[in-house]
Amino acid sequence: MAATLLSSLRSILLQLFDSGAIKFADPGQEFTLKSGAKSPAYFNLRTLNNNAKLREEASGLMWQACQLGDNATYDCICGVPLGAICYADAISLAHDLPLVLKRPFAKQHGVSKKLVDSDLPKGSNCLVVEDVVTSGTSVIETVTALRDAGFVVTHAVTFIDREQGGKERLGTEYNVHLSSVCTGSQVLDILYQNNKISTELKDYVQQYLSANNMIVAKEPPVQAKQLNFQERALLTANPVAKKLLNIMTQKSTNLIFSADVDSLDTLLDLASIVGPHICAIKTHINTFAVENFKLDLIYKLRNVADEQNFLILEDSKFADIGNTVYKQYVDGYHICEWADFVTAHAVSGPGVIEALVKGSGNRDRACLLIAQMSSDGNLVSEAYTNGVLKIAEDHSGFVAGFICRQKLSSKPNFIHITPGVKLAAGMGTLGQQYLTPDEVIKNRQSDVVIVGSGIYQAEDPLAATIAYKEAAFAAYNDLL
Length: 480
Ligand code: 5BU
Known about the structure:
Layout: H1 3-18, E1 22-24, E2 31-32, E3 38-39, E4 41-43, H2 52-65, E5 76-79, H3 85-95, E6 99-100, E7 126-133, H4 137-148, E8 155-161, H5 166-174, E9 177-183, H6 184-193, H7 199-211, H8 229-234, H9 239-251, E10 255-258, H10 264-274, E11 280-283, H11 295-308, E12 311-318, H12 322-330, H13 335-338, E13 341-344, H14 351-360, E14 366-370, H15 382-394, E15 399-403, E16 415-418, E17 426-427, E18 433-434, H16 437-443, E19 448-451, H17 453-456, H18 461-479
Parallel strand pairs: 5-6, 5-7, 7-8, 8-9, 10-11, 10-19, 11-12, 12-13, 13-14, 14-15, 15-16, 16-19
Antiparallel strand pairs: 1-4, 2-3, 17-18
Helix pairs in contact: 1-2, 2-3, 6-7, 10-11, 12-14, 16-18
This protein binds 5-bromo-uridine-5'-monophosphate.
């Protein structure tokens, strides 16, 4: 980089750092990113909006970073909404390039419901501008909308590339070349050289950025199922998924007990009995009669879970719009406080996950997306399941895996969890369809079984738990 550009970059980064737009967290105090992933590095260029001169300078650097050479240029420019529109606008004004606007959401009223509304000729080559790229998901959304509207997109530019896989994904999967003014490592270097951060912090954040590529390889070099739970834990960023994989290894159990009993007191008694043999307990908090409901009992369950090293999965099956889900998760039964992870349908779109990420705050939380169901005649189609997988991939920092009937994804970070399991297969009451642990784990290559009535209706729930645990874990071992 030329000396003048470097000095301009240095001056911008130092001002961003001093204004709190670039922040770093010590171990254990990580920030939650938009995708739900935790990170010790936080880059938010929105504060540049407060300083027109600085914004103009940053836009100038972006423009220089994406020059095509040979006097070639772009026909127009589009900023990823909302954060990068101001940089696209500054470049548009400085270089007389038509500005294309992409809406964050399709318009619900008026003549046009299009995401991109422009009367520029089809085939115009549009440069996409973003402020910070991590996994590249937001750039991809804008590229896809522009292409759907008839634009050609070959190049994108960002101020900071966090070097967490976005550039590679854009190049290999979308044929878009991403240029950047600087990388996450360069930000660290410049701040370190200017005595803003210590060597320890620089090394810690650098290590995190290098180890946390947000894009798990499309085809992992080793088949996911050949990796054991412990190996997969190392490839998993979400703290709950990591914990579950580690618990399964430590306790030799891939059994979740679905405690669909009549009262929280019974649930607590059973949890203490079966606790040593399960990796998680699954609750349906809204099945308990309101008049008997005591929230303190659920906090007692939290203590038992911590003592006996199992997780709590609340089978909330959230399915509403983000706002409502946020209230159900945070206010309704205070689920966000005691459940490590929850289930959610993806039918209403990714807003559900974004609501859960927001509701989780700084807690280590995750969700499982319901990709398939066990009930007879359910309406889940293959196309729907594929749509769920896509949403999960775009939010892999928060989505720990799937409720499903079989293995759906080869990505080792996603845990496959299957309900509708009994030692004797067949039809249960009210349309439930049962498979055996062997069928689920060995033939269908799921990872974890959920067993409810097979345990709590058994004469000896502890003996039944041990039988399910041994059957499911033996099936898992057979596959390795
Ligand atoms: P069972 O008693 O083992 O049949 O209980 C299964 C549990 O799993 C029960 O709480 C269901 O609500 C839950 N479940 C399911 O059975 N099938 C599904 O597709 C989903 C959840 Br999603």
